[in-house]
Fold these 2 entries.
Entry 1:
Amino acid sequence: MKIKMLLFLAILTLGMVSCKNQASQEKSEVANEKPDWVIVIHGGAGNITPERIPPEKEAEYKVKLAEALDAGAAILDNGGSSLDAVEVAINIMEDCPLFNAGKGAVFSADGINELDASIMDGRTMNAGAVAGVTTIRHPISAARKVMEESAHVMLVKDGAEQFALGQGIEIVDPSWFYTEKRWQSLQKAKQREAEKKADLTKKSGTVGCVALDKHGNLAAGTSTGGMTNKKYGRIGDSPIIGAGTYANNNSCAVSATGHGEYFIRNVVAYDISARMLYANMTLNEASNEVINHVLKEQNGSGGIIAIDNKGNIAMPFNTAGMFRGYMKPGTEAEVFIFKDK
Amino acid sequence: MKIKMLLFLAILTLGMVSCKNQASQEKSEVANEKPDWVIVIHGGAGNITPERIPPEKEAEYKVKLAEALDAGAAILDNGGSSLDAVEVAINIMEDCPLFNAGKGAVFSADGINELDASIMDGRTMNAGAVAGVTTIRHPISAARKVMEESAHVMLVKDGAEQFALGQGIEIVDPSWFYTEKRWQSLQKAKQREAEKKADLTKKSGTVGCVALDKHGNLAAGTSTGGMTNKKYGRIGDSPIIGAGTYANNNSCAVSATGHGEYFIRNVVAYDISARMLYANMTLNEASNEVINHVLKEQNGSGGIIAIDNKGNIAMPFNTAGMFRGYMKPGTEAEVFIFKDK
């Protein structure tokens, strides 16, 4: 009788454990269910603290980030492509003086705005980039034309502009990109340089977007004005496939922002994909390892946004803040600026 | 007694097996002994067949490849750095009209020679690159100055030239790069384009060098004129760190040659390193996988040269031929052009 009782208890316990496991498994499956579509954006990483961004400015940034997310999300929700969503979201940030891309880009040492951008299609693995352009209103759209309408990946300077013009890309007078704030930043940087003081120029500030569409296709894009007071035709990581931008349907889509030279040397965007494919890391593990260990140990400041092919997202940065946000079906845009909000 | 006999035989057999193992291990260790230094070069991959390269031309190429190897080897044998060896070997090929780099570079659609180069130091992981330069005799030397004397990795066009001039890099008249053979190639390419015939332009032809020095440091460099009849400021993989050039003392040094757009999209040079570090592939496995599977399946033609940090070398290509060679202590330069010789 005692044995039967024990057996009964044992079966009961096993049953409960089994039920609990099933429940937690279901919960975990629900939590990890692949969303129909996902969009993530950034507007640059850097020394972005509540002390430097007053509440009214914070609100301005958040409104614009949400606007860019909403525009991309509308395309994705309608069954549009991740490439279209990436381009549209970036176009909105390129037109906004708050960000260092398109209108509002920083000035080079020559007092001009030299813009770089790149885009990659995770389905075809095709890619396009422009660098050092000064008259293209939306460099990300020019990069997309390079990808889709040329046999090349990367076009630079006036050659890239000539190509864009032939493709019907909107050309503007260089004064379109002028903002008083960025002009003053250049003057300050030049003054510090003349006084041989340390360069306090922000090495970051760039916009980017990654998206997963209903067809399971990933895309990534990045657009920037580069570094204030940059010289000698310097090109950072933003227009370099593998460094600032990478997308592959087998792994993830990544857009980076930060001190570009570190991102080039560490082939950051591709490294995240490679760690997923070859070292079986999750998107979170791979991006945290690259941003918070590899780069941090080299004092390479910045961050990335990424989506894997299951719709998981990552937005690590090793700076004080990063303008960022994401959106999934059935939710409002979630936007953040500082470490925790 | 029988048992003792069997025991004796068993011990004897075990001893023999053990000795044999030791012997084969020793042999394998001797075979894999790390050489004091190694240098490998390439002068471009492509449709290089005995039918297209008559014996006297073949001899010319082999003499020049051996000369470049000898110059780099002399530095390495004297305890010099892999960076110096890479630069000197590439300088020799840049000055030689046989190769598509420096003097003898192909012409762009505008009838000028636009040169790209990059270099990477596997010890510091620092890197430098110039792209679209038209007056720098030795673009690889300018790339090295970018790496060592600037805060940047990549400088393009006239900005890069201005920087090089300030660094005492030799500036030449653009006519220095002119060769009748390449000029005629451009005319032919333009004629075929006008007649809307298929582009037969060779997508390859570049020079590169990788070296391991006595101090265990790896370095890689690549220099090119790009593609005949290239337009719109097109930049290929050669000046892109991770695509055409990569070096890391923890894994390998790689220099690529081929249809650049494929090498950029596949982040070829870094991918070989990533497969070694994350997927535990050998240098041979990693480079064969990338060149003979990943690229071949995309019709991405070309090849790479590489050395790992143990001094193993790899020189795979998926084209008819690749100008290539290597040298180690105590041997003559070994040079090859076609598949098997």
Entry 2:
Amino acid sequence: MPENGWFLHQQLCDDSVAVGDLPLSRLLAMNDADFPWLVLVPRRAGVSEIIDLGPEQAMLMDEIALVCRALKDETQCDKLNVAAIGNIVPQLHIHVVARRKDDPLWPQPIWGAAARRPAAAVDLTRFVGSVRRRMAGSMAGTNP
Amino acid sequence: MPENGWFLHQQLCDDSVAVGDLPLSRLLAMNDADFPWLVLVPRRAGVSEIIDLGPEQAMLMDEIALVCRALKDETQCDKLNVAAIGNIVPQLHIHVVARRKDDPLWPQPIWGAAARRPAAAVDLTRFVGSVRRRMAGSMAGTNP
């Protein structure tokens, strides 16, 4: 549903499932078999850089921190990788990825690597459910 | 110089020159011929994730935004790429890279790509000088 003219970019929509809405951002889980991978998308139209958000940058950082904490607690990962790239999808979106020293690409970044493998539906559903439960106090709803 | 036990990681030191110190972070310019590339390193010992900063996360976001603005104004780039990865260098550091649609790696991310080409000294010096001038009002000193 549009929110002040905002709608989720089709590529992000195709590659993920919705976890829910934080005050500023929609939280997505990427459909990926190898990496626990969340994406925050601020629901603001026409925004492609963090600095385009103006004072709402502070809200974005709060939400990045919430997501980082939930993902670290959920996965007990060795490292979080956080990035706003957007060279292909111009709508501002922030990746938060849990990395392990024994994962298929460690220590390389996951962006720009070969094509992703989609997750088994049951695994993705379980992951989304777990993240929702961890973040329930921060989310307005699931807005799938 | 150590600051409450903090010192710059040797790899970051080897790969960059210091631009100056913001209230939280040391600002570095990577020695790279192909990309205008700045790195923020919070001067806090033992910190490897953004969430390790606690309430200082807000200061980090302010400094990321300052650096993004300066780099965009300086380069008139097409896109900023911002990332905290740290799979190889565990000390928390945030990359801010100016990307152009005609740069050598567009639209791929620069991290994980082939070895970097060092910049000509004159170019790096000019870039650092320009960034220092743009950020002079925010920096305590150059602390090389």
